[in-house]
Amino acid sequence: MKKSMTLIVPCYNEEESLPLFYRAVCDVIATIEDCDVTLLLVNDGSRDGTLSVMRDLASRDSRVRYLSFSRNFGKEAAMYAGFCNAKGDYVAVMDADMQDPPSLLPQMLDILESGEYDSVATRRVTREGEPPIRSLFARLFYRIINRISDADIVDGARDFRLMRREMVDAIVAMCEYNRFSKGIFGWIGFRTYWLPYKNVERVAGETKWSFFKLFKYSIEGIVNFSQAPLSIASLMGLILTVASFAAILFVVVRRLLFGDPVAGWASTICVILLMGGLQLLCLGIVGQYLAKTYLEVKRRPHYIIAETNDESAQRVH
Ligand code: UDP
Ligand code: MG
Fold first, then answer.
1. Atom of ligand 1 nearest to the CA of 9
2. For residue 128, how far is its CA from the centre of ligand 2 (angstroms)?
């Protein structure tokens, strides 16, 4: 039987890129014969004409389905909505800005069809066209998170990957509210083939990621996939407690033996400040985890669909 493939495309303010993307994808899927390809466009609360572009594409091409959110929920939510509503045997996630070259699809499909792998993921081997400071912090982030997390997160990995149904079901089953896809993909396992390619700059529009947003996202990644900060805080507390017991002992013994007069006001203040700072830091770390837990237990929906041309779509999930 002929297999089917769903391409999930999260879009936020992509009215310029989307038509270009659509054309490029159509050219590529025309060359794929042994697989029916459908497009699942997810409008993540765009403020420009993205939704009307989607309606237009859907009315002209029956292979196009779209889900339109009631507001901007973020790319993670858009991808989750895509995974929940994708019906294909194979599912891929692709950015609308052509930074994930559609021309790689046939090759990715071949690798999956050979049966040795469950997913084909892409990895940028260059970071050309990216501010150097951003690349530096990105490298640092990957080094840290791989040290302290049991999810295997590859440097330069993109969200662009093609996977089998089994893997998609596993992703949908990971229904956590705070989603970090790079971690989720790594955590669920499966056999993944890494396909390297050169970085491509976006065709139109501009990136939605400011440096600050990326920084926040990396902290999220760490908090979501590692308990190491909590352990570090506890360990630091333990070491400091032991050290201060030793210091107290030392001071008491010295007082008894030598009758030392009061001295060292400045150093005392420094120690007090240090302790106060460390306590706040650790409290902050605990707070980060507590905040995540708070959002998690509320069980709010990941996304809300306001409009779609797919009757069977799960509108709130
Ligand atoms: N995107 C989204 N919701 C958001 C931000 C981005 O759906 O809140 C989409 C965006 O339309 C694009 C993809 O996620 O298709 C990647 O975004 P972008 O190109 O801005 O990120 P970068 O490639 O710079 O990391
Ligand atoms: Mg991009």
1. 15
2. 13
